[in-house]
Amino acid sequence: MQMKKIIESWDLYLTEQKCKLPNRGDIAEGVVAAAIAAKLSKRVNGKIEMISVSDVVAQVASIQDMNTVVSNVVPDFSDEHEDTVSFSISMPKRPFEALVDRNLLACLQGEYEGAVSYVNSPPMHKFATRLASNKKSNNILVKAAGTEDQKGTKVDISIIVDGNKLRNQLSLKVKGGEQFAQKTGKAFEVQKAFWEPLGIDVSSAEQEYNSIVDGIPAGKPFSSREEINTGGYLQMASNATSLIYQQAYKTLESKLRDDKFEAEFVKLLADYIKTGAVGPESEFVELVKILPGGFKRARFGKKFYSEMEKANLYPIINTSGSYPKIQIIYEDAAGNKSVLVQMRAKVERASGKSGGSKKYGVLMRNYLETGPALYKLAGV
Question: What domain count does the chain have?
Fold first, then answer.
């Protein structure tokens, strides 16, 4: 019995090692694009059929290289016209290699099953049916290109019909992908820029903040990470960001407690979430989170703003960890509580090469991350 447990533990260890994948979000873009193409092509006896994981695997297996456009010519429901359904992907080299490596299929089971669940859902099924029954010959391209313009757009997957980009654009997240926005740097202006979209002024902490971070050397002047530890620079950065977060928390608490300011703040918060989630093209972008065997969808239109206005929200702060964080909690009518968003600080010992040798420095970040309540208030 003991030997059996040892063997099982070893097998689990080997599986975990085998499944140390590069960016899962990048890989998932390719999987979902292939799943959409498979769904749009699955036309049998005048109807769109449900697809399976094997249908998506077959699409991915058709990819020859990064520049491949995989195309299928399929008849419409009238058998009088044909549509060309294609998909293309653009992603970094390592995620691409993982996507097309059949030995890693088991590691991506959750992504494949989640993608299939999403494209078989009623909205995508109706969309596929509409294209197949419009009595036209269409060129349909599903384009996964989230890495092409990461700063300019939040769109990861576009659907283009006869050269026209449709409203069905996707911003994709995977399990663990809660981050929507970040600001990086130790300058006070970085802290200011992180909180300003929420109408929060942290300038009262500026002088004390600067007095601390001015003692943290700029750039990457250290020869080892240990120098950063022994110099106490991580703790200094933590102390400085705690000042900012405590000031921000006081303002948040005041705004959400006072009816006079609550509506204005909630509007700013909704704008901040929307911009972080789907960017400036929010009217045409759907947020899709692919989960093992399932998915969640969210849109940020009038319904979301209406739900935000009615929501019971309040902030909490945690400064007991290594770095501070603030969470905005949503409490529903039954008293159930869940996180809507959280803002958290993080300090890293960043590395880089200088003059042929590795150097280290202190890198300060602020993250905006979403919680489960987002899909309750923005879910569709």
Answer: 2
